[in-house]
Amino acid sequence: MPPMPELQLIAIDVGNSCTRVAAVSDTSITEPVSQSNGDLGAVTEAVLRHRETLSESSPRPIVIASVNDAFADQLASALSDQLSEEMYRVGPDLPVPIKCELAPETITGVDRLLNAAAAFDVLKQACIVVDAGTAVTVDFIDGKGTFHGGAIAPGGRMQLQALHEHTEALPDLEFTAPDADAFGRSTGQAMLQGVHFGIQGLVRTLAEQYAEHYGAYPTIVATGGDADTLFRGDELIDRIVPDLTLQGIAVAARHAMASARDESSD
């Protein structure tokens, strides 16, 4: 059987507030960048720049995964006006290569499934994936690579925004790590302490619950824009992988390529 051709593509992860773009060449994710969804032009320009880093001698498809379909549709339209490359959406065009054990009719965010697929593709063992972004998700994948779902909670910025908007006196804050003090000695520090350690406690409690149910303590992988702020130096977290969703897009594309190759050889 001839060897698999090298995979190359532009991976685009459209989140709720930001879009992350990277070039993928074989197993390498190259210089991922993040742009606000409020600037369609900047996101489009990031795609064009990454496209130029890939070889013109092979196809350079664009693969979009999205939890914000309104912005993803705008981006796809803008890109189709400027590029001739094939464009695929994860879900409708490319399935995520992971089994699921969920309630009937459940619709799960494609980012959660891609994170799970990417983590299991590397670890090949039971794991917990924590995605700390606009929302915080804590999901369990068993030792056979089956996604069992998990928990969804407001992320750090969302919690701080809710505290500000639904009270008279609490300030509007950016989400950062609190000071290294046992006590929040100002209103702002008290808010940061509550949100930061509340999320850490949520993850710890859920990890213990999943481990008790599974009968073993899984490897815990953290990703998302706030993962480093929340979990740097936390002994509970085994790995922080900032670009897990982009890696999941590459895994989905690789599986689709392999499936197409197998079908053509039958």
Describe the structure using short key phrases.
Nucleotidyltransferase, domain 5; 2 domains; 11 strands; globular; 7 helices; alpha/beta; six-stranded mixed sheet
Rg computed from alpha carbons, rounded to a whole number of angstroms: 20 Å
Q: What would CATH call the homologous superfamily of the largest domain?
A: ATPase, nucleotide binding domain
By CATH, the topology of the largest domain is: Nucleotidyltransferase, domain 5
Strand content: 15-25%
Distance between the termini: 12 Å
Number of domains: 2
Main beta-sheet strand count, sense and barrel state: 6 strands, mixed
CATH domain class of the largest domain: Alpha Beta
Mean pLDDT: 94
- The succession of helices and strands, N to C, reads EEEHEHEEHEEEHHEHEH
Portion in helices: 25-40%
Characterise the protein shown here.
By secondary structure, this protein is α/β, with parallel strands linked by helices. It folds into 2 domains: 82 residues, Nucleotidyltransferase, domain 5, CATH 3.30.420; 146 residues, Nucleotidyltransferase, domain 5, CATH 3.30.420.40. Helices cover 39% and strands 24% of the residues. The chain is built from 7 helices and 11 strands. Helix 1 packs across helix 2, helix 3 packs across helix 7 and helix 4 crosses helix 5. The model has no long low-confidence stretch (mean pLDDT 94).
